[in-house]
Amino acid sequence: MSLSDKIMADMKQAMKDKDKVKLNTVRMIKSALMNEKIKLGHELNADEELTVLNREKKQREESIAEFAKAKRDDLVEETKKELAVVEGYMPKQLSKDKLDKIVKETIEEVGAKGKSDFGKVMKAVMPKVKGRADGKQTSALVRDHLN
Q: What Pfam families does UniProt report for this protein, alphabetically (predicted)?
């Protein structure tokens, strides 16, 4: 089942269940995917869909942080529910051990010796973990291994 088919099915189910949060979130995802399709001028491939989902996830994470700073607990809870819906469409996240292994292998592949090779390692590791690991967590691991 393609992502667009899954989104349509989930949207119908959310309507039947009268789940407003899920319905609104799924509609936002569908809209973001459609906008990206129009912008690029072709059907989205899996990589492009993942990029859109990552963008939606990041927006919600940033919103949660801002709402928490403003002490708007009602909006924090709402946004956390939206984030859970978005994460449901994303691939399974890598465990810390698997991510650590990928980082170590990549460092060996590129022959990195120290901190100066950080950019080279990140450039090589990010395509391997795209959508399956947080960029901040990945960069922290790379930095730790290069020190």
A: YqeY
Q: Taking a C-beta distance cutoff of 8 angstroms, is the pair 131, 53 a contact? A: yes
Quote the pTM value: 0.77
pLDDT at 23: 95
Report how far residue 144's alpha carbon sits from residue 49's, in angstroms, rounded to the nearest whole number: 31
Q: Which residues contact 102 (CB under 8 A, 6 or more apart)?
A: 94, 125, 128, 129
Give me the residue spans of the domains in the chain: 3-87, 96-146
So what CATH class is 96-146? mainly alpha
Give burial (CB, 10 Å; 0-12/13-18/19+) of 36: middle
DSSP letters, 101-129, are: HHHHHHHHHHT--SGGGHHHHHHHHHHHH
79: pLDDT strictly greater than 80: yes
pLDDT tens digits, one per residue of 25-43: 999 999 999 999 999 999 9
The whole-number average pLDDT for the span 49-60 is 91
pLDDT of residue 1: 64
Q: Which fold has domain 3-87?
A: Hypothetical Protein Yqey; Chain: A; domain1 (1.10.1510)
